[in-house]
Amino acid sequence: MSTSMTDPMIGRLIDGRYQVRSRIARGGMATVYLATDQRLERLVAVKIMHGHLADDSTFTERFIQEARSAARLAHPNVVNVFDQGQDADSAYLVMEYLPGITLRDLLQEYGALTSEQTMDIVEALLSGLAAAHRAGIVHRDLKPENVLLADDGRIKIGDFGLARAATAATATGAALLGTIAYLSPELVTRGIADTRSDIYAVGIMMFEMLTGEQPFKGEQPMQIAYQHANDSVPAPSGTNPKVPAELDELVLWATARDPEDRPADARELLEQVQETARNLETSLTGTGPQKTMAFATPLVAQGDTAETQVLGTRGAVAAAVTPAASAMATSSATGELARAAAPRRRRGWILLAVVLLLAGLAAGAGWWFGAGPGAQATIEDVRGLSVEEAQLALEEQGVLVSETQGEAFDPEVPAGLVAGTDPPAGEIVARDLPVQLVVSLGREPTTVPGVIGIPEADARLALETARLVPAEQTIAQFDGEIPEGSVVALVSLAEDGTETAIEPESSSFVGTPVSLVVSAGPVPDVIGLPSADAIRAFEDRGLVASVVGEPVFNNDIAADGVVSVAGPEGAIRPGAEFALTLSKGPDLVDVPEVVGESINAARDILTEAGFEVTIETNAPSVFWGLAIVQEVRPGDAQVLRGTPITIVAFFD
């Protein structure tokens, strides 16, 4: 049967623009189709979220997050996202269409790749990943299925559906994100991902390309996850002796169990890959973007060499020559005025100097405390904001935000959001003092202790030591194997009363409320007791019992005694109801009187009455019609139904 006949999306026009032509691939969250963009007349890949996930806001938000994450990246080694929207009940992404195969297809067809091929692919992969890390994005789901090898030689990273900000961390509790085979130890054990988690996945893919197989294997996903968390990735040369020692070192560096021992991000690993390639004289195809050239000396335009001329005009004063006496008088008067005016001019200059000095000091003080080294600002409370929002809010206040970020567990702020600042909010700091954002790692992980079967008091102490919060009220449950007062189970109670089992030795978070289910001992054993005593025994233990149905015969239990008890399936809690079946007593039947009858007649009478008859006689069978029964055993008038009867008849 053709795809078009089985898939209703084939031939559909999405959002009045994208004509679906065929299906390319199907995943757990979405299906990818080849379509024609009728507006721009080009082939595109349309990724449509599965319809049954449309009502789940988490899946929809993750789907939209893929578009936002990829749209922030413009890089030759990242699949371009053109559009995103909603058509009917389905969210969709429109991406560039790359005819070709995935790295998974290549590995399945060829097995191990050569060192040169591996280095080509890894360099392109790291080039795109470095752009993502530089933009503050962690992919979190790197695997061969998400590395696209186009027919024209381009290599691109796709599927940013699990991408998040580089400072974000995730706790999966019931489920881990990403593919198990490529999960880093910190994702398995703590649910935390950063740029170094992507580096680990790249290292696992390098191992797989160099050897044709994954480093860890297992029948169950959790077996593989356990190996990631507890074992170190072996050197690829142990599987493929052709692998150079330099590539062994790259793989082991990228897959170090401790994130601190790995490259900080894709850029750092890319530089080492390129250096290793040069040392090995590996022929790289240059699939990554060309490096930007920087000029050592800036280009400066030549200024004019001529000095600037200031041209003035000199005025001419015409003066008449006076007689000598007049000139002398005038000279004398002018000298007196000059001498009298000199002190005033000096005081004026002093006052002007003081004013200018004070103005300069005021301006300097204003600059010093307003924009200079003495400027201060009060740190705003940015708790709960995203890193970008917190940076913007602080910078608008004039606070200098440090390029480095701290991390801390926080019981209230989700992972990846800002949990606070260092110094804390409300403090007044100099504007040139960098304030560090502290990003939440989410709730601090802990391990649930094994407390099943131990007394309640000891279990509470163990839970408190693990920094879990045991509920004051316990839940009673009847259990025939665990002693009364000891722990049967641990559960988490929702607001509606729904219980979720908490497994011992499982991962949890500091401060998680835990309810203890404590044994109330076994259900009362009332078999054989009179009905009134049995009902009272159940009531004394907080249970409900009632008689149901008609009594039944029981050869071992007297009439009105309890023959059987039927209770609820699963956990039995106080208030549970039980049904009691009572006894009629023994099932007695009358034995017909056959003494004095012939053997044949006696046998027929007893057989017809439902008895199994045994004959004890010395008479030949041909004479049984004449031989007279002398005795019947047992000789009771009534016996239990099913009791065999023996008839005795002897000839003298």
From TrEMBL:
GO molecular function: ATP binding; protein serine/threonine kinase activity
Segments forming domain Protein kinase: 18-277
Keyword terms, alphabetized: ATP-binding, Kinase, Membrane, Nucleotide-binding, Serine/threonine-protein kinase, Transferase, Transmembrane, Transmembrane helix
Domain PASTA: 374-441, 585-650
Pfam family, one: PASTA
Residue intervals passing through the bilayer: 349-369
EC number: 2.7.11.1
Entries under Gene3D superfamilies matching the protein: 3.30.10.20, Phosphorylase Kinase, domain 1 (3.30.200.20), Transferase(Phosphotransferase) domain 1 (1.10.510.10)
Source taxon at top rank: Bacteria
GO biological process, one term: negative regulation of fatty acid biosynthetic process
Catalysis: reaction(s): L-seryl-[protein] + ATP = O-phospho-L-seryl-[protein] + ADP + H(+); L-threonyl-[protein] + ATP = O-phospho-L-threonyl-[protein] + ADP + H(+)
InterPro entries assigned to the protein according to its UniProt record, in alphabetical order: Kinase-like_dom_sf, PASTA_dom, Prot_kinase_dom, Ser/Thr_kinase_AS
PANTHER family: MITOGEN-ACTIVATED PROTEIN KINASE KINASE KINASE 20-RELATED, SERINE_THREONINE-PROTEIN KINASE YBDM-RELATED
Protein name: non-specific serine/threonine protein kinase
Gene that encodes the chain: pknB
